[in-house]
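Cross-posted from the bioinformatics board.
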Amino acid sequence: MSAEPDEPEGRLRRLTTIWSRALFPVTSTSLTRAEFEEQLLPLARRLSELLRARNFDADAAKGVGAALVAAHCTDPEALARTLDCVDAYLVLYCGGDGPQDELRMRSSRLQHAMAAGYAVALRERTLAEQEAIAQAALRAQGVVAQALHASEARFRAVFEGAAIGIGIADLDGNVLQVNKALLRMFGLSEQTLRGRRVQDWVHPEDAPQTWRLYEELVRGDREHYHVEKAFNRPDGTALWTNLTVSLLRDADGTPQYQLALMEDTTERRLLNLRLRYEATHDALTGLPNRSLFFERLEKALGAGEGQRFGLCYLDLDGFKTINDSLGHAAGDRLLVEVADRLQSCATAPGEMVARLGGDEFVALTTGPGTERTVDELAERIMNALVTPISIDGRDLLVRGSLGIVEGPAGERTAAEVLRSADITMYRAKSAGGNRSELADPEADARAITRHGLTTALPTALERGEFFIEYQPLVHLGDGSVRGAEALVRWLHPQHGVLGPDRFIPLAEHTGLIVPLGRWVLEESIRQARAWRERYGEQTTAGPLRINVNLSPCQLSHPGLVQDTVDILERSGVTPDALCLEVTESALIGADDDLLKPLRRLAEMGVDIALDDFGTGYSNLANLRRLPVSVLKLDRSFTQSMQQFPADPVDLKIVEGIVSLAHNLDLAVTVEGVETGAQAEQLRILGCDTAQGWYYARPGPPERLQELALVDATG
Amino acid sequence: MERPAWAPRSIDISVPSVSRIYDYYLGGSHNFEVDREAARKAMRFMPGLPKIMQANRAFMRRAVRFAAGEGITQFLDIGSGIPTFGNVHEVAQAAVPGARVVYVDHDPVAVAHSEAVLAGNDDTDVIAADLCKPQEILTSPRLDRLIDLNRPVALLLVAILHFVEDADDPYGAVAELREALAPGSLLILTHASYEGIPLPAERAEGAVDVYKDIRNPLIMRSREEIARFFEGYDMVEPGLVPMPHWRPDSAPEDEDPYAFSGFAGVGRTA
């Protein structure tokens, strides 16, 4: 824009420039100086017009003041500088040739009106902006409040809808707020619960640390704790919970509230208890089972000095018969009744009854005085069984065998104690049952050895721990060796040499007798062949024979005949070199099926000897039926002949038997000949052969060779 | 309904706000006595504080016009505060009719006020969000409505980064924003600094302490530290300079000495 400096437009611009320079430093505008000056130019022009107008226009002047505020000249200093500028330069630059006094007057009035207009506009703007910011603050608070409300509503929904119980209490323990889940758990109304104090919820089953943790928390020494806790419900049942309590602090960290979160574990706990109960109790009788009993026994055995234990091990006599005859249901009912009765026998503290299985029960008593209490307990148990038990209208008489073990704690393991009780119970049973026996270490040891031998038997055969000794059979007429009885021995690694009485019954019991018997037969036949090779088929008095014992078990074994034939054939020994000895008792009441194998062997030429003759009440008439060719007279008949004179009754009996045997074409062998007198007596009585210490003890096969040699040369 | 992440637990207008203090410096009345009290206290140490704010506004005005001249029609102003006058949308829409402007602030009162001011202007909007969480800004539906991130955007960070402490990772936030911008976008930035203040540093520190007291600490950074915000940008002439030196409309020597406090610059993404 260009204007001549002295033209009116040029003068107006000069005024504007001066005004703008004065004003710009006190404005807040973001306009440039030039832009700002352009904004002022119309205002200056307006002032110039108002100065020269015929009439004074106050409103227009006010408008110029207001325009300053609109141009963001809100600092009152801007008004002062504006008025200074108008006062000094408006008349000078815009008055022209007009009357100076009037112009000055008009300028003053314009300034007054401008000031008023500026003040009004600034006031309006200030109020408007204050209003705007207050509204903005309010709206912002509204938004926040709404958000907060929504958030609170959400948290409230979480609080109310949570499956776990939530409660808030102050630090004095006053319950302030609880959710529905918690009310449900406690079975209380909100009103009732709200008035309560946390400290009122002491429960007998509280863990020892529960309330210590609580105190630490409310003191502010602990942020949270976790316990399992029970609460009493109004219906008298217990509520079990997993309880987590946290300390709530305010923004400054000062403890304010306690927050409890609880999970109802009552059902789970009941289930656990039930599972534990089922795992430790017998389903039929409800008595503690073997595992719980062992737990308790171990605890009793682990008790401190001065503590003792007493144990009664009961096995019902003949329970199998009841089960077999009346059925298992009746048997079960009987067991339940027995269990009930036993239970009532052990009611004192430290006493318990358990069912180990089947018809086996145990009762335990503990404490320092079990030497006395165990006897009383045993007596109560035996008495409890006296009254018959009524099952299906039948009165059943129940008897039991009781093994009692008593002793100090800390010496034996539970398994050892129970084994001793078991052994002792079997002693009572062996003694006829319906009685109790007190454990005896020696009896235990024997039983334990027996047990040890039984279990060691199979490996002993594999390892070749058995060997055979031979006891010569001597002809009473000429004193010649006619053969030998094979007697098996066990060279046990710990117990040394064991005789057949120690292990044959065990082998019979376990069935090992069959392979063992076969081995003895093989070994003996092999030995017989060795002798025959050495001395020829015949000695001076006939063939050398080997006597081998057959147990009842072997007798009924289907492979007996075939095995024997195979062994004889394999070693090339004729059947007449073998004599099988069978005990009289094994053949008592034997039927034809049992006798058939023996008959076949006898037909082949094997001699059969009836061992221990005279001890089994045998029916003499039976002798005809038996395929025997030799009677072996039991040593009990010949014992009295060791002295002189012999018992005349024994002499008569032996004489009779010999006579009977010979009439039946049976040879007679006597056992246990220990003296020369005895031998002489038996020879006179007509016995054919004899064996015993008088001739030789059982020994290795070489010994027999020596004897035979002596005999051959003598 | 979820409580927005930005919403504070309550609005306490008894606590001074930097937006309202800024308004007071600029002669506005969008403020409360607590704000004015804090502003007056700071001005006792640095009487020229309003001149710094005014220089900020003037620079912003020139920079927005520059951006419009570069063909940019989308503007994202983070830390917009309370727009008293001469706002980005006024300048931009005057230069380019239909220019789109999105304001962002984390002060709920400033946001509520902006909403009132912008009511009826469909090409503008305001987002309540925090510069330190750029994803909240970038994924906002309001931003999506107005700004196409596949085209250049002028990002304004005017007088805001000096309110972000290093612990809140302002460099990371600026970088995250940069990565979202299309090539040819501009970063328009000013930042407070002890450099250029026509006072001994101890006096300036007095003003800084006022902001510390109102729990809005003012982080004065060196020119080098401020320059690091432009990593990944090519500086537009004349680079990072005192505000009056950035493409002035009038002779810088006419400016108030306080206007030279701090630095301003514009960068362009490759």
